[in-house]
Design a protein that fits this description.
Number of helices: 6
Shape: elongated
Helix content: 25-40%
Oligomer: single chain
Distance between the termini: 85 Å
Strand order of the largest sheet: 2-1-5-4-3
Strand content: 15-25%
Number of strands: 7
Radius of gyration: 25 Å
Length: 191
């Protein structure tokens, strides 16, 4: 009945628009059929009607021809039945760089025919910046430990070696690669 169909449509729209990730439903050619409310967030402004546009020409990718090409390739992969995924840096309208884990995948009907393409973006900006900061700190720590004239070995709470500087490797006769992950007592024996 019409009432049931309207209820199902309302329920779908509620789930679709409350999802945290950004979702676009595309036709098999890669043209926009529908986008969810979360998709407006990185642009910091309402999205005008995008229905019928090629997905790679939508505002999210407008700042980079390279990114548009990557999106086009991902859509082509989905059109051929495969899922594509990559990290995309997008410049929001306020100038902020947002990083998304982007994917495009095919949706097939019960006969195996691709009827829709689903494009999704998960905002990984914060976790990416934290990862980058940790890598930078790790590099600084490594450089500092390697510069010490004394032997330095660090372990975790279980006594497993997490870091060993070149002076320790020379003293113990182990390579960095072989020593990391071993028990300290196996690598360095104090008499």
């Amino acid at each position: 009945s019409d009432a049931q169909l309207n209820h199902q449509c309302d329920r779908f729209r509620g789930v679709f628009d409350s999802a945290f990730q950004f979702i676009a439903i595309l036709d098999p050619k890669g043209l926009v059929l529908n986008i969810n409310a979360s998709s407006q967030k990185p642009l910091h402004s309402p999205i005008t009607n995008l229905t019928g546009l090629a997905f790679e020409t939508t505002p999210w990718w407008g700042n980079s021809l390279n990114l548009q090409g990557e999106v086009r390739q991902a859509i082509e992969q989905a059109r051929s039945g495969k899922t594509a995924r990559f990290d995309a840096e997008i410049r929001a309208n306020d100038g902020q760089i947002c990083i998304f884990d982007f994917s495009s995948s095919p949706h097939k009907n019960k006969h195996g025919t691709i009827t829709l393409l689903i494009a999704e973006g998960r905002d990984i900006t914060e976790s990416t910046y934290v990862e980058r900061a940790l890598r930078k700190q790790e590099q600084k720590l490594s450089t500092t430990l390697d510069a010490f004239g004394d032997a330095v070995i660090t372990t975790n709470d279980k006594g497993m070696i997490t870091r060993i500087n070149p002076q320790s490797c020379n003293l113990c006769g182990w390579t960095f690669r072989d020593a990391v992950g071993l028990q300290l007592s196996k690598v360095f024996n104090v008499i």
